[in-house]
Design brief:
Number of strands: 0
Order of helices and strands: HHHHHHHHHHHHHHHHHH
Radius of gyration: 21 Å
Oligomer: single chain
Shape: globular
CATH class of the largest domain: Mainly Alpha
Helix content: over 70%
Structural class: mainly alpha
Distance between the termini: 33 Å
CATH superfamily of the largest domain: MFS general substrate transporter like domains
CATH architecture of the largest domain: Up-down Bundle
Number of domains: 2
């Protein structure tokens, strides 16, 4: 593989880390110290994360147009400058309102380095082993989160949460340096290259992708798919409570840890499986794992069965990220990807936000997690049917 393709992977990994690791995975470390200093509840501080996620998804709709107008380097540079400036401003806040406003801006800035631009770039650069390359790129956000969590915790404990934000600003800048300074672009043609694995048949397929119109039905089906798989990811936060409801409170933390370990490793495994069997079959296998996990959590009464169910639930995190991107490319083609994927991503964000609270409300209303777990199994079925129908619709259009 030419070093230029390695540069693209490095740039994409840095971008996704600056968005997901620094914007979604690690900010929870700041909730308690900020709440303690400002004399407010952790839930009020955690609202900054909700604001960030919503704005990240909404402004993701604008990113393809920005990329096409400014190009990759200028887009990432603009987003990085804005994100670093906002992160350095957060330590100056003395109340929650300016924090809410700044996190809205963080969401906008992070969208320029998030899953939409990264997967667009990878789809343009790689026509072969795309799912594997995407999974490798996405894995770095989990690895960086695990590596930086104790570092940031130590900085906050020793120097306070404000110094923690200054450290995060430095890391964000360093992570985006490859995309800003390496000689790459959004499309390989812009720097005199062709997509990796682009052969005669692939060229013909690309021309077909470009000419096929975007039909309403497959868009609806893919929206349903990403809503369902994103909704499933919300259940991980309820694992300790589910364990407690089965008189296994002592096992709740372990179940959550097992789920998170599978979450990280399953993303890389998805790419390997997709490279051999194709992204659709890999997606079906993971959806089946989610369905079996739901049944185990619903029916199993012992520690072994509940832990196995939690492990299978960990597969869900690969679906709204890698699988959704891969299947969108399969259904709509590379050229239409940037027009469709941001909408699908937004739908997934709404589902994740709704899933966490709705699962809690179902428990409050019924007094147990039975109905919520049945809904979990139903979401897995909906994910399978919608993706299967969307892919088959595409096959008929291509004939």
């Amino acid at each position: 593989m030419n070093k230029k393709y390695i540069m693209v992977i490095a740039a994409g990994s840095g971008m996704i880390c600056s968005c997901l690791a620094m914007g979604m995975n690690l900010p929870g470390l700041f909730f308690s110290p900020i709440a303690a200093e400002l004399g407010t509840g952790r839930g009020n501080v955690a609202m900054t994360g909700t604001i960030f996620n919503i704005l990240l998804a909404v402004f993701g709709l604008m990113v393809p147009a920005i990329l096409n107008r400014l190009g990759l380097r200028k887009t990432v540079l603009m987003g990085t400058i804005l994100l670093v400036a906002v992160t350095c401003t957060l330590p100056l806040c003395r109340s929650l309102l300016p924090m809410y406003l700044l996190h809205a801006v963080r969401g906008f800035a992070s969208a320029m380095m998030g899953t939409v631009p990264v997967t667009m770039m990878l789809n343009f650069w790689f026509r072969k082993k795309t799912a594997l390359i995407t999974s490798i790129t996405m894995c770095f956000s989990g690895l960086l989160s695990a590596a930086l969590s104790p570092v940031i915790t130590g900085i906050i404990a020793s120097f306070g949460w404000r110094m923690g934000y200054y450290f995060c600003a430095l890391v964000i800048f360093l992570l985006n340096c490859p995309a800003i300074f390496l000689p790459i672009a959004l499309r390989p043609e812009e720097v005199g290259f062709e997509p990796y694995g682009m052969e005669a048949a692939a060229v013909q397929k690309a021309e077909t992708d470009r000419s096929l119109p975007i039909m309403v039905l497959p868009v609806i089906l893919m929206l349903i798919f990403n809503f369902a798989v994103s909704y499933i990811t919300a259940y991980a936060q309820h694992l300790p409570a589910i364990a407690e409801s089965r008189s296994l409170a002592f096992a709740g933390a372990m179940m959550l840890s097992v789920c998170m370990v599978v979450n990280t490793s399953a993303k890389l495994v998805f790419g390997i499986v997709a490279n051999g069997l194709g992204a659709p079959r890999a997606s079906y296998l993971y959806i089946a794992g989610n369905f079996i996990g739901a049944i185990l959590l619903l029916k199993a009464g012992g520690l072994g069965g509940m832990t196995a169910g939690a492990a299978l639930l960990g597969l869900s995190y690969s679906l709204p990220t890698i699988a959704a991107a891969s299947l969108t490319r399969e259904v709509f083609g590379v050229e239409n990807y940037g027009r469709v994927y941001p909408k699908i991503s937004l739908c997934g964000t709404v589902a994740m936000a709704a899933g966490t609270s709705l699962t809690g409300y179902i428990y409050d209303f019924t007094g147990n997690y039975t109905a919520a777990l049945i809904l979990l199994a139903a979401m897995a079925v909906a994910a399978f049917l919608s993706s299967y129908l969307a892919l088959n619709y595409r096959k008929k259009q291509s004939v």
